[in-house]
Amino acid sequence: MTWLARTSLWSLLVLTAVRFSPAQPPASAPPEACRIDRVEILEKGIYRVPILKRVADPNVVSGQHMVYGKREHVQDTTTIPATTGIQFGFRYVVVGEPQGTKVPVRVIAVYPPGGRYNPNTGKTFAQDVFYLSQTIGSTTSHFCFTLASWGHVLGPWTLQVWDQDRKLAEQTFTLVEP
Question: Would residue 31 count as lying in a domain?
């Protein structure tokens, strides 16, 4: 199984999922009898999520990822004001068989043309890639961003969920002036 190895991130929040190190995708594929049919987006928009802990992670743009508490869906929208601290994304379910089986998925965040610039590292990124483990049938899987004090690139931010080389779901958010 081939996984896209390039990863970066500034403050992309991965909620609920067991996170694999972006530099090391899952060591093995799910059992042969396991099947992912599709991903359904259940809700999207703005969230309120407490940050419980910040964990150093040299494989992401920001140099850290967050551990979060209970999520609260605040507003169903795809228009996001580019404001420091705002949290946006979606809740989804992996549909397939057998129910309850953990499966690896890859989430790609595609930024507006020109990419996102991190002033702390001097690097620009066109996209970020994250490797997650999700449970088939679970309706508690989330993928969200929290905007840091930098990188508020206006325009379309597209979040995609992939199973190997097959795109399963996509949601685009438009960041606008607050």
Answer: yes
